[in-house]
Amino acid sequence: MGYLGRWQIFVCTAISLVKFPVAWHQLAIVFMAPKQRYNCALPGFGNASDQCHATINGSDVECTQWEFDRSVFPETIISQWNLVCSRSHYANLQQSILMFGILLGSISFGFLSDRFGRKLPLMVSIVLQLASGIGCAVVPWFPALLLMKFLSAVATGGTMVTSYVICMEIVGKSWRAAITILYQIPYSLGHMSLAGLAYWFRHWQHLQIAMTLPSIILLGYWWVVPESPRWLLAMGSQRAACKVLQTAAKINKLDDKEIPEIVRKHCLHQNAKKTEADGRASFLDLFRTPNMRIKSLSIFFNWIVCGMGLFGMTQYIGHVGGDIFLNFALSGAIQIPGNFLAWWTMNTLGRRITLVASNCIAGLASLLLIFVTPDLEWLRLIFACFGIVGMSVSFTTVYLYSGELFPTVIRNIGVGTSSMCARIGSMVAPFVVSLGIIQPWLPPVIFGVLPIIGAGLCILLPETAGSELPETLQDGEDFGKSKIKFKNGKICNEAEVAL
User: Ranges for the Major facilitator superfamily (MFS) profile domain (predicted)?
Assistant: First the structure.
Protein backbone atom coordinates (compact mmCIF):
# COMPACT_ATOMS: atom_id res chain seq x y z
CA MET A 1 0.00 0.00 0.00
CA GLY A 2 3.06 2.24 -0.07
CA TYR A 3 4.87 3.93 2.77
CA LEU A 4 2.85 7.15 2.48
CA GLY A 5 0.16 7.79 -0.09
CA ARG A 6 -3.22 9.43 -0.44
CA TRP A 7 -4.87 6.80 1.73
CA GLN A 8 -2.45 7.22 4.65
CA ILE A 9 -2.55 11.01 4.43
CA PHE A 10 -6.35 11.05 4.44
CA VAL A 11 -6.74 8.59 7.33
CA CYS A 12 -4.01 10.16 9.50
CA THR A 13 -5.30 13.69 8.90
CA ALA A 14 -8.83 12.63 9.81
CA ILE A 15 -7.69 10.82 12.95
CA SER A 16 -5.46 13.70 14.07
CA LEU A 17 -8.57 15.90 14.40
CA VAL A 18 -9.44 13.95 17.54
CA LYS A 19 -6.68 15.91 19.28
CA PHE A 20 -8.78 19.11 19.23
CA PRO A 21 -11.36 17.82 21.77
CA VAL A 22 -8.53 16.08 23.64
CA ALA A 23 -6.87 19.47 24.22
CA TRP A 24 -10.17 21.19 25.02
CA HIS A 25 -11.31 18.67 27.62
CA GLN A 26 -7.87 18.35 29.19
CA LEU A 27 -7.16 22.08 29.54
CA ALA A 28 -10.62 23.64 29.97
CA ILE A 29 -10.19 23.79 33.74
CA VAL A 30 -8.07 26.92 33.22
CA PHE A 31 -11.18 28.85 32.14
CA MET A 32 -13.87 26.90 33.99
CA ALA A 33 -12.23 27.30 37.39
CA PRO A 34 -10.01 30.40 37.15
CA LYS A 35 -8.91 32.50 40.07
CA GLN A 36 -11.72 34.90 40.97
CA ARG A 37 -11.90 37.71 43.47
CA TYR A 38 -14.71 37.27 45.98
CA ASN A 39 -16.21 38.95 49.03
CA CYS A 40 -18.09 37.45 51.94
CA ALA A 41 -21.85 38.12 51.59
CA LEU A 42 -23.46 35.97 54.31
CA PRO A 43 -23.77 36.04 57.27
CA GLY A 44 -22.02 39.42 56.97
CA PHE A 45 -19.19 41.28 55.29
CA GLY A 46 -15.75 39.78 55.78
CA ASN A 47 -12.61 41.49 56.96
CA ALA A 48 -10.45 43.32 54.45
CA SER A 49 -7.79 40.62 54.67
CA ASP A 50 -10.09 37.63 55.27
CA GLN A 51 -13.14 36.98 53.11
CA CYS A 52 -13.66 33.53 54.62
CA HIS A 53 -14.85 34.83 58.00
CA ALA A 54 -17.13 37.60 59.20
CA THR A 55 -17.45 39.27 62.59
CA ILE A 56 -21.00 39.09 63.97
CA ASN A 57 -21.67 40.61 67.42
CA GLY A 58 -18.00 40.35 68.25
CA SER A 59 -17.79 36.67 67.23
CA ASP A 60 -15.79 35.30 64.31
CA VAL A 61 -18.00 33.07 62.12
CA GLU A 62 -17.42 31.37 58.78
CA CYS A 63 -18.97 32.82 55.65
CA THR A 64 -21.57 30.71 53.84
CA GLN A 65 -22.20 32.83 50.73
CA TRP A 66 -19.91 35.01 48.62
CA GLU A 67 -20.16 37.64 45.93
CA PHE A 68 -17.80 36.93 43.02
CA ASP A 69 -16.11 39.21 40.53
CA ARG A 70 -17.98 38.45 37.29
CA SER A 71 -16.31 41.07 35.12
CA VAL A 72 -14.41 38.45 33.07
CA PHE A 73 -16.39 35.24 33.62
CA PRO A 74 -20.13 35.56 34.42
CA GLU A 75 -20.24 32.06 35.90
CA THR A 76 -17.55 29.51 36.70
CA ILE A 77 -17.46 26.23 38.57
CA ILE A 78 -15.97 28.20 41.46
CA SER A 79 -18.79 30.74 41.65
CA GLN A 80 -21.65 28.29 40.96
CA TRP A 81 -20.73 25.95 43.80
CA ASN A 82 -18.85 28.38 46.10
CA LEU A 83 -15.55 26.51 45.85
CA VAL A 84 -13.59 28.95 48.00
CA CYS A 85 -12.19 29.05 51.54
CA SER A 86 -12.83 25.68 53.21
CA ARG A 87 -14.23 24.31 49.92
CA SER A 88 -11.36 25.48 47.69
CA HIS A 89 -9.78 22.01 47.61
CA TYR A 90 -12.73 20.73 45.56
CA ALA A 91 -11.48 22.66 42.52
CA ASN A 92 -8.11 20.90 42.81
CA LEU A 93 -9.95 17.61 43.32
CA GLN A 94 -11.62 18.04 39.95
CA GLN A 95 -8.24 18.42 38.25
CA SER A 96 -6.90 15.32 40.00
CA ILE A 97 -9.98 13.32 38.98
CA LEU A 98 -9.54 14.54 35.40
CA MET A 99 -5.93 13.36 35.21
CA PHE A 100 -6.75 10.07 36.94
CA GLY A 101 -9.54 9.46 34.43
CA ILE A 102 -7.18 10.03 31.50
CA LEU A 103 -4.70 7.70 33.16
CA LEU A 104 -7.32 4.98 33.58
CA GLY A 105 -8.65 5.51 30.06
CA SER A 106 -5.19 5.16 28.53
CA ILE A 107 -4.66 1.82 30.26
CA SER A 108 -8.14 0.35 29.81
CA PHE A 109 -8.59 1.36 26.17
CA GLY A 110 -5.02 0.31 25.43
CA PHE A 111 -5.89 -3.16 26.68
CA LEU A 112 -9.23 -3.23 24.82
CA SER A 113 -7.70 -2.16 21.52
CA ASP A 114 -5.01 -4.83 21.72
CA ARG A 115 -7.75 -7.40 22.32
CA PHE A 116 -10.58 -6.19 20.08
CA GLY A 117 -8.87 -4.06 17.46
CA ARG A 118 -8.14 -0.34 17.22
CA LYS A 119 -11.33 0.90 15.56
CA LEU A 120 -14.10 -0.29 17.91
CA PRO A 121 -12.48 1.06 21.14
CA LEU A 122 -11.84 4.36 19.33
CA MET A 123 -15.53 4.68 18.45
CA VAL A 124 -16.61 3.71 21.98
CA SER A 125 -14.35 6.38 23.46
CA ILE A 126 -15.71 9.05 21.08
CA VAL A 127 -19.33 8.22 21.98
CA LEU A 128 -18.46 8.24 25.69
CA GLN A 129 -16.67 11.58 25.31
CA LEU A 130 -19.70 13.10 23.58
CA ALA A 131 -22.25 11.80 26.10
CA SER A 132 -20.25 12.64 29.23
CA GLY A 133 -19.26 16.05 27.85
CA ILE A 134 -22.90 17.05 27.44
CA GLY A 135 -23.62 15.55 30.85
CA CYS A 136 -21.03 17.87 32.41
CA ALA A 137 -22.95 20.90 31.16
CA VAL A 138 -26.39 19.87 32.44
CA VAL A 139 -25.87 18.13 35.80
CA PRO A 140 -27.15 20.25 38.73
CA TRP A 141 -24.90 18.81 41.47
CA PHE A 142 -21.16 19.12 41.92
CA PRO A 143 -20.61 15.40 42.74
CA ALA A 144 -22.43 14.54 39.50
CA LEU A 145 -20.15 16.96 37.66
CA LEU A 146 -17.11 15.15 39.07
CA LEU A 147 -18.53 11.83 37.83
CA MET A 148 -19.17 13.22 34.35
CA LYS A 149 -15.69 14.78 34.25
CA PHE A 150 -14.19 11.44 35.22
CA LEU A 151 -16.05 9.61 32.42
CA SER A 152 -15.07 12.34 29.96
CA ALA A 153 -11.44 11.98 31.01
CA VAL A 154 -11.56 8.18 30.59
CA ALA A 155 -12.89 8.71 27.06
CA THR A 156 -10.21 11.32 26.35
CA GLY A 157 -7.49 8.89 27.39
CA GLY A 158 -9.06 6.27 25.12
CA THR A 159 -9.15 8.51 22.05
CA MET A 160 -5.53 9.54 22.62
CA VAL A 161 -4.02 6.07 22.74
CA THR A 162 -6.13 4.32 20.08
CA SER A 163 -5.97 7.08 17.47
CA TYR A 164 -2.20 7.41 17.67
CA VAL A 165 -1.54 3.69 17.33
CA ILE A 166 -3.71 3.51 14.19
CA CYS A 167 -1.62 6.26 12.60
CA MET A 168 1.61 4.54 13.57
CA GLU A 169 0.55 1.22 12.09
CA ILE A 170 -0.53 2.33 8.60
CA VAL A 171 2.55 4.29 7.50
CA GLY A 172 6.03 3.20 6.48
CA LYS A 173 9.00 3.54 8.80
CA SER A 174 10.49 6.53 6.96
CA TRP A 175 7.31 8.57 7.53
CA ARG A 176 6.59 7.75 11.16
CA ALA A 177 8.26 10.95 12.40
CA ALA A 178 6.23 13.10 9.99
CA ILE A 179 2.97 11.45 11.01
CA THR A 180 3.80 11.93 14.69
CA ILE A 181 4.18 15.67 14.03
CA LEU A 182 0.91 15.77 12.09
CA TYR A 183 -0.75 14.02 15.01
CA GLN A 184 0.62 16.45 17.63
CA ILE A 185 0.02 19.77 15.86
CA PRO A 186 -3.80 19.61 16.20
CA TYR A 187 -3.31 19.35 19.98
CA SER A 188 -1.35 22.62 19.97
CA LEU A 189 -3.97 24.19 17.69
CA GLY A 190 -6.67 22.93 20.05
CA HIS A 191 -4.72 24.46 22.94
CA MET A 192 -4.69 27.82 21.14
CA SER A 193 -8.30 27.64 19.94
CA LEU A 194 -9.54 26.93 23.46
CA ALA A 195 -8.53 30.48 24.36
CA GLY A 196 -10.79 31.73 21.55
CA LEU A 197 -13.69 29.50 22.60
CA ALA A 198 -13.34 30.65 26.20
CA TYR A 199 -13.20 34.29 25.07
CA TRP A 200 -16.55 33.98 23.25
CA PHE A 201 -18.21 31.58 25.70
CA ARG A 202 -17.43 33.06 29.12
CA HIS A 203 -20.07 31.00 30.99
CA TRP A 204 -18.52 27.64 31.88
CA GLN A 205 -21.58 25.62 30.83
CA HIS A 206 -21.69 27.33 27.43
CA LEU A 207 -17.98 26.61 26.99
CA GLN A 208 -18.52 22.96 27.94
CA ILE A 209 -21.20 22.55 25.27
CA ALA A 210 -19.16 24.45 22.66
CA MET A 211 -16.15 22.15 23.06
CA THR A 212 -18.24 18.94 23.21
CA LEU A 213 -20.59 19.24 20.22
CA PRO A 214 -17.81 19.12 17.56
CA SER A 215 -17.24 15.49 18.60
CA ILE A 216 -20.42 14.66 16.67
CA ILE A 217 -18.32 15.01 13.51
CA LEU A 218 -15.93 12.35 14.81
CA LEU A 219 -18.73 9.77 14.69
CA GLY A 220 -18.03 9.69 10.96
CA TYR A 221 -14.87 7.74 11.78
CA TRP A 222 -16.99 4.58 11.65
CA TRP A 223 -17.13 4.94 7.86
CA VAL A 224 -13.76 6.63 7.35
CA VAL A 225 -11.23 4.97 9.65
CA PRO A 226 -10.23 1.37 8.83
CA GLU A 227 -9.13 -1.31 11.22
CA SER A 228 -5.35 -1.44 11.55
CA PRO A 229 -4.06 -3.96 8.97
CA ARG A 230 -1.01 -4.56 11.15
CA TRP A 231 -3.25 -5.59 14.06
CA LEU A 232 -5.34 -7.80 11.76
CA LEU A 233 -2.19 -9.55 10.55
CA ALA A 234 -0.91 -9.96 14.11
CA MET A 235 -4.23 -11.62 15.01
CA GLY A 236 -4.14 -13.88 11.93
CA SER A 237 -7.10 -12.22 10.12
CA GLN A 238 -5.59 -12.46 6.65
CA ARG A 239 -8.79 -11.92 4.67
CA ALA A 240 -9.75 -8.74 6.55
CA ALA A 241 -6.18 -7.43 6.31
CA CYS A 242 -6.13 -8.07 2.55
CA LYS A 243 -9.36 -6.12 2.13
CA VAL A 244 -7.96 -3.07 3.95
CA LEU A 245 -4.63 -3.25 2.11
CA GLN A 246 -6.28 -3.62 -1.30
CA THR A 247 -8.46 -0.57 -0.62
CA ALA A 248 -5.36 1.38 0.37
CA ALA A 249 -3.49 0.22 -2.74
CA LYS A 250 -6.32 1.30 -5.05
CA ILE A 251 -6.51 4.77 -3.49
CA ASN A 252 -2.72 5.06 -3.69
CA LYS A 253 -2.89 3.89 -7.35
CA LEU A 254 -0.76 0.80 -6.71
CA ASP A 255 -1.11 -2.74 -8.01
CA ASP A 256 -3.12 -4.81 -5.52
CA LYS A 257 -3.03 -8.19 -7.26
CA GLU A 258 -0.07 -9.55 -5.30
CA ILE A 259 -1.31 -8.40 -1.88
CA PRO A 260 -2.92 -11.76 -0.91
CA GLU A 261 0.32 -13.63 -1.64
CA ILE A 262 2.42 -11.03 0.20
CA VAL A 263 0.08 -11.26 3.19
CA ARG A 264 0.24 -15.07 3.15
CA LYS A 265 4.06 -15.07 3.17
CA HIS A 266 4.13 -12.42 5.90
CA CYS A 267 1.84 -14.48 8.12
CA LEU A 268 3.90 -17.62 7.56
CA HIS A 269 7.03 -15.71 8.53
CA GLN A 270 5.40 -14.27 11.66
CA ASN A 271 3.84 -17.59 12.66
CA ALA A 272 7.28 -19.16 12.58
CA LYS A 273 8.41 -16.63 15.20
CA LYS A 274 5.17 -16.47 17.18
CA THR A 275 4.95 -18.22 20.51
CA GLU A 276 1.96 -19.20 22.62
CA ALA A 277 2.62 -16.13 24.79
CA ASP A 278 1.86 -13.77 21.87
CA GLY A 279 -1.78 -14.89 21.87
CA ARG A 280 -2.19 -13.94 25.53
CA ALA A 281 0.09 -10.91 25.74
CA SER A 282 -0.57 -8.70 28.76
CA PHE A 283 0.72 -5.74 30.73
CA LEU A 284 3.24 -7.99 32.51
CA ASP A 285 4.99 -8.67 29.21
CA LEU A 286 6.34 -5.12 29.34
CA PHE A 287 8.56 -6.26 32.23
CA ARG A 288 8.80 -10.05 31.88
CA THR A 289 12.10 -10.16 29.96
CA PRO A 290 15.30 -8.19 30.74
CA ASN A 291 15.60 -6.05 27.61
CA MET A 292 11.89 -5.18 27.48
CA ARG A 293 12.01 -4.32 31.19
CA ILE A 294 14.90 -1.87 30.75
CA LYS A 295 13.30 -0.20 27.73
CA SER A 296 9.88 0.03 29.39
CA LEU A 297 11.14 1.58 32.64
CA SER A 298 13.37 4.06 30.81
CA ILE A 299 10.67 5.28 28.45
CA PHE A 300 8.04 5.37 31.23
CA PHE A 301 10.24 7.66 33.34
CA ASN A 302 10.66 10.00 30.37
CA TRP A 303 6.88 10.11 29.96
CA ILE A 304 6.51 11.13 33.62
CA VAL A 305 9.07 13.88 33.06
CA CYS A 306 7.27 15.12 29.93
CA GLY A 307 3.87 15.19 31.63
CA MET A 308 5.18 16.97 34.69
CA GLY A 309 7.42 19.41 32.82
CA LEU A 310 5.01 20.46 30.07
CA PHE A 311 1.98 20.78 32.34
CA GLY A 312 4.01 22.50 35.07
CA MET A 313 5.61 25.01 32.71
CA THR A 314 2.26 25.73 31.05
CA GLN A 315 0.77 26.38 34.47
CA TYR A 316 3.67 28.68 35.32
CA ILE A 317 3.31 30.77 32.15
CA GLY A 318 -0.40 31.16 32.91
CA HIS A 319 0.46 32.81 36.24
CA VAL A 320 2.91 35.36 34.86
CA GLY A 321 0.21 38.04 34.80
CA GLY A 322 -1.65 39.95 32.11
CA ASP A 323 -4.47 38.74 29.87
CA ILE A 324 -5.41 35.12 30.64
CA PHE A 325 -6.64 34.45 27.09
CA LEU A 326 -3.51 35.85 25.43
CA ASN A 327 -1.12 34.08 27.79
CA PHE A 328 -2.91 30.77 27.32
CA ALA A 329 -2.90 31.08 23.53
CA LEU A 330 0.82 31.93 23.65
CA SER A 331 1.60 28.81 25.69
CA GLY A 332 -0.04 26.73 22.95
CA ALA A 333 1.48 28.62 20.02
CA ILE A 334 5.07 28.18 21.15
CA GLN A 335 4.63 24.39 21.09
CA ILE A 336 4.11 24.36 17.30
CA PRO A 337 7.72 25.38 16.46
CA GLY A 338 8.79 22.68 18.90
CA ASN A 339 6.84 20.10 16.90
CA PHE A 340 8.54 21.04 13.62
CA LEU A 341 11.92 21.18 15.35
CA ALA A 342 11.28 17.66 16.63
CA TRP A 343 10.47 16.50 13.09
CA TRP A 344 13.75 17.81 11.73
CA THR A 345 15.93 16.51 14.56
CA MET A 346 14.27 13.08 14.69
CA ASN A 347 14.95 12.59 10.98
CA THR A 348 18.50 13.96 11.03
CA LEU A 349 19.79 13.04 14.48
CA GLY A 350 17.51 10.15 15.42
CA ARG A 351 14.99 9.65 18.21
CA ARG A 352 17.44 9.08 21.05
CA ILE A 353 19.67 12.13 20.50
CA THR A 354 16.59 14.33 19.99
CA LEU A 355 15.09 13.21 23.30
CA VAL A 356 18.39 13.69 25.13
CA ALA A 357 18.91 17.20 23.70
CA SER A 358 15.35 18.43 24.28
CA ASN A 359 15.32 17.12 27.85
CA CYS A 360 18.61 18.89 28.55
CA ILE A 361 17.35 22.18 27.06
CA ALA A 362 14.16 22.05 29.13
CA GLY A 363 16.10 21.12 32.26
CA LEU A 364 18.69 23.88 31.88
CA ALA A 365 16.00 26.49 31.12
CA SER A 366 14.21 25.53 34.33
CA LEU A 367 17.40 25.61 36.40
CA LEU A 368 18.25 29.09 35.08
CA LEU A 369 14.97 30.35 36.58
CA ILE A 370 16.60 29.96 40.00
CA PHE A 371 18.98 32.82 39.24
CA VAL A 372 16.38 35.25 37.83
CA THR A 373 14.90 37.73 40.30
CA PRO A 374 11.07 37.97 40.52
CA ASP A 375 11.03 41.54 39.17
CA LEU A 376 12.45 40.38 35.81
CA GLU A 377 9.17 38.84 34.67
CA TRP A 378 10.06 39.11 30.97
CA LEU A 379 13.23 37.04 31.47
CA ARG A 380 11.36 34.45 33.53
CA LEU A 381 8.80 34.27 30.73
CA ILE A 382 11.56 33.66 28.15
CA PHE A 383 13.11 30.82 30.17
CA ALA A 384 9.66 29.32 30.76
CA CYS A 385 9.02 29.44 27.00
CA PHE A 386 12.32 27.64 26.35
CA GLY A 387 11.25 25.04 28.89
CA ILE A 388 7.89 24.57 27.15
CA VAL A 389 9.52 24.28 23.71
CA GLY A 390 12.01 21.73 25.07
CA MET A 391 9.25 19.71 26.69
CA SER A 392 7.05 19.88 23.57
CA VAL A 393 9.94 18.45 21.52
CA SER A 394 10.43 15.73 24.15
CA PHE A 395 6.70 14.94 24.20
CA THR A 396 6.54 14.63 20.41
CA THR A 397 9.67 12.48 20.35
CA VAL A 398 8.65 10.19 23.18
CA TYR A 399 5.28 9.59 21.50
CA LEU A 400 7.01 8.26 18.39
CA TYR A 401 9.73 6.49 20.35
CA SER A 402 7.19 4.52 22.39
CA GLY A 403 5.24 3.39 19.34
CA GLU A 404 8.44 2.08 17.76
CA LEU A 405 9.87 0.34 20.83
CA PHE A 406 6.92 -1.89 21.75
CA PRO A 407 5.96 -4.93 19.60
CA THR A 408 2.57 -5.02 17.88
CA VAL A 409 0.97 -7.53 20.27
CA ILE A 410 1.47 -5.16 23.24
CA ARG A 411 1.94 -1.82 21.46
CA ASN A 412 -1.34 -0.32 22.64
CA ILE A 413 -0.71 -1.58 26.18
CA GLY A 414 2.76 -0.03 26.06
CA VAL A 415 1.63 3.29 24.61
CA GLY A 416 -1.35 3.34 26.98
CA THR A 417 0.89 2.74 29.99
CA SER A 418 3.22 5.44 28.71
CA SER A 419 0.34 7.89 28.52
CA MET A 420 -0.63 6.83 32.04
CA CYS A 421 2.85 7.79 33.22
CA ALA A 422 2.44 11.22 31.61
CA ARG A 423 -0.82 11.65 33.52
CA ILE A 424 0.98 10.80 36.77
CA GLY A 425 3.44 13.56 35.98
CA SER A 426 0.58 15.94 35.16
CA MET A 427 -1.13 15.13 38.46
CA VAL A 428 2.05 15.87 40.41
CA ALA A 429 2.91 19.08 38.52
CA PRO A 430 0.49 21.45 40.37
CA PHE A 431 1.84 20.27 43.71
CA VAL A 432 5.41 20.86 42.50
CA VAL A 433 4.46 24.40 41.46
CA SER A 434 2.90 25.01 44.89
CA LEU A 435 6.26 24.19 46.54
CA GLY A 436 7.26 27.72 45.54
CA ILE A 437 5.36 28.90 48.63
CA ILE A 438 7.92 27.08 50.78
CA GLN A 439 11.01 27.98 48.73
CA PRO A 440 10.89 29.77 45.35
CA TRP A 441 13.78 27.68 44.00
CA LEU A 442 12.16 24.27 44.63
CA PRO A 443 9.92 24.07 41.50
CA PRO A 444 12.70 25.10 39.06
CA VAL A 445 15.07 22.58 40.63
CA ILE A 446 12.57 19.71 40.30
CA PHE A 447 11.52 20.72 36.77
CA GLY A 448 15.21 21.05 35.89
CA VAL A 449 16.80 17.96 37.44
CA LEU A 450 14.23 15.35 36.35
CA PRO A 451 14.55 16.00 32.57
CA ILE A 452 18.33 15.68 32.87
CA ILE A 453 17.91 12.32 34.64
CA GLY A 454 15.53 11.29 31.85
CA ALA A 455 18.17 12.25 29.28
CA GLY A 456 20.65 9.98 31.04
CA LEU A 457 18.24 7.03 30.93
CA CYS A 458 17.95 7.41 27.15
CA ILE A 459 21.39 5.82 26.91
CA LEU A 460 19.68 2.51 27.75
CA LEU A 461 17.31 2.82 24.78
CA PRO A 462 18.09 1.66 21.22
CA GLU A 463 17.82 3.98 18.24
CA THR A 464 14.64 3.15 16.32
CA ALA A 465 14.88 5.47 13.30
CA GLY A 466 14.67 3.47 10.08
CA SER A 467 13.98 0.19 11.89
CA GLU A 468 11.11 -2.19 11.20
CA LEU A 469 8.47 -2.24 13.92
CA PRO A 470 8.76 -5.34 16.13
CA GLU A 471 5.76 -7.67 15.82
CA THR A 472 6.00 -10.48 18.38
CA LEU A 473 7.14 -10.55 22.01
CA GLN A 474 10.40 -12.15 20.90
CA ASP A 475 10.91 -9.35 18.36
CA GLY A 476 10.43 -6.84 21.16
CA GLU A 477 12.96 -8.58 23.42
CA ASP A 478 15.55 -8.94 20.64
CA PHE A 479 15.12 -5.37 19.38
CA GLY A 480 17.98 -3.20 20.60
CA LYS A 481 19.89 -5.86 22.50
CA SER A 482 23.47 -4.79 23.04
CA LYS A 483 25.12 -7.09 20.57
CA ILE A 484 28.32 -5.30 19.75
CA LYS A 485 28.90 -4.84 16.05
CA PHE A 486 30.92 -2.50 13.90
CA LYS A 487 29.66 0.03 11.40
CA ASN A 488 32.01 2.43 9.62
CA GLY A 489 34.66 1.63 12.17
CA LYS A 490 32.44 2.51 15.14
CA ILE A 491 31.05 0.28 17.85
CA CYS A 492 27.24 0.34 17.93
CA ASN A 493 24.35 -1.87 18.93
CA GLU A 494 22.28 -4.04 16.62
CA ALA A 495 19.53 -1.46 16.09
CA GLU A 496 22.07 1.12 14.96
CA VAL A 497 23.62 -1.31 12.48
CA ALA A 498 20.25 -1.50 10.70
CA LEU A 499 20.31 2.23 9.93
Answer: 11-466
